[in-house]
Amino acid sequence: MKRILAFLILMVVVVSCGKTKESKKENNDYLKPESTGRINHVIVVVSPDHWKGKIGQAFKELLEQPIPGLPQPEYLFNVSTIPPTAFTKMFQNSRNLLVLQLADREVFKTTKNKYALPQTIVELKAKTEAELVELIKTRGPEMIGVFRNEDLASIQKENRQNKLVTKITALSNLGVQMQIPNKYRVVMDTLGSFMWLRSHIAGGIAVGDQTNNLIAYKVPMFTSEEPILNQIIKNRDRIGKAFIRGNNEDTMYMITEAARTPVMKEVTIDGKKAYETRGTWEVFGAYNAGPFLNYSIIDEKDNSVLVVEGFNYAPSVNKRDFVFELEAILKTTKIK
Asked: pTM above the 0.90 mark?
């Protein structure tokens, strides 16, 4: 009996180990190196002749739409190009890869983690130059979404591994959960329902007193009496005057910059209808200014609007990646 029991245990262990090895063999993730390259940077594998011609022009036109809400024109990605002959191991480990080339059939394909982790490879192929140009125009926005979503997911994964453990009373009172990295510190956490967290930016292009900021609060449900964007701006300005003050607290406070009309679109956050608003803020009575990203989420259960917002202060440097970090955090918002 003991021999039979020992044999059965041994068989379970062998089968279990076999499945584990088979699973690892299928994806080979444990053998793959860490990918290289920054977020919002794409390596394009393309023939130099194609890049100089209509194919490259179509791709550049796709990316040359400035990101809304930034004080200076900035584009979605930094782009580097390499010819197919140079696509060696050094470049195969890049975070974001785009392959543009002619082939015997049309291809739009996304592959994840082929050579490194994390990694996104998008292939756009067509039979002729004209067909590839058309493919870039029709599937280009989808391609952009793939790269952006994967970069957002990468930041969110890192945030989960280094999350803030400090209890935020305002978030609890608002019934909100959010994946906030531990580099953020509390500026204001009211016993009511207003939160303000701040992270000082250090390293890279950041110098001086540059910060990313997160705020959260609730406002009454939108009415049909005036445009939604106008109500969002009024909510921002009211909260700014009440809580976000300048050096002279009596006369200086944050407002939405009047010279630039914010850009708003309807999105979904935590399965709920929401409005994404990108624009610029300024301090009334001072010269401080910067971009903001606001999500006004419809909470029908509570008949109110939950507002989560990030704003950045980083004068004299590009701000795209800072706002991208805020977007990654804000999109993890969940209403309990």
From this structure: no
